[in-house]
Input
Amino acid sequence: MKKFISALLCVSSFSFASMIGLEALGQEQIAGGSAAMAGRGFAGNAKTGDIEGVSVVNPARQAFDSKVTFNLNFLLDVTTADRSNSHFTKTNLTMPSMNLTFPMNDFGTLGFSLWQHYSSTMREDIDNEEENWNAQIEYQSSVYELVPTYAIRLPFFRAVSLGASAHFVMGSFTRDLTLGPDNSEIDSTDAWATSNSEVTDHVSGDWKLKNSAYFTVAAQFRGRMASYFFSFTTPYTLKNELEYNLRFSELDTLAPTHYTRSIKVPAMLATGVSYRLNKRHNVMADVAWRAWSRDIDNVAGSWSMSQVTKTQNDFNISIGYQRDGSDVFYDSYWDRIAYRAGLWYKSWYVEDVSEIGGSIGAGFPLGRKGTMLDLAIQGGVRLTDDDRNWSESFIGIRLGLVGVGNWGKTRGQ
Output
């Protein structure tokens, strides 16, 4: 299992996420970042009847699943960041999530998810010919969560389900800031007389929880036309145990120093509704909210870098639409496709940063058993009023493969 998880984490080891919050937690993935959810603006955590598997914000939803579901998701996007006279364009390839649900009839439904919650990853080389210096900047950080879940429908009120999940955190952080001279304009025969030394501020460490896990509890009501959910996620403290090394031309290293930064993440409240307008037409809306009250300690280090990232209330609202595909195999293929669209607004945890995005998507059935290929195209902007942060635009493609089965059941069930 450890080797399998390590291989999955390597998929994200060379991705460019966002320039915002690099010294803090980085970019936060919107909860429920599957390709199907992305196609409808990340709304629909209350929607049942789809083969989407675990919802990390609403574990109670999976109690209404009737088939074993395996869901694997990939994201490819291009992000452009601007600030003053600086401009960056990078491509991101990552796997935001994978999950598995296993219904056990009257005994409830078990689930398991691997979810990339935060990431701050980039690499860039910068040259300044006027001042005769160059710099290399590299960040590689991911906060992953292993999330086992359980949900069950109430025995005498089958329209209501209760669910709970535990979040176990793992991940690593590495940052290299290298400053060196620029002697590219000096004749090679005279280069020996120049200083060739480079100074690298190297920081590395692991992500852990102060306690063993944090938890989400949820309740859902599924009606004939409308479904609702409400969830509560407990507050928790992330610990980042860092080792600082100052290296000279990668030959000499000063004695390392150690520092553990603690990031207190507040509790999260979330709710959502899914309403069926017609037999196959659905509109959805989700809201999630966190009240940050403390600034986040930055990695910082040498060269008088900023010591904190100021925070604000973290708020996300999503609205979406989905026209379900026909479940009759003999209908036309175009009629069996699920069509999706959505919008979202997110106030980041970073002060004065907000995000506006939109998406379209479709779910393409593969075969008779219900296997689905989900595709979503998303785009948007991240806006800021603070000169210390970057303004960004992004466009991306999410691809999800959903497999279903009837494990543990005899034929005819």
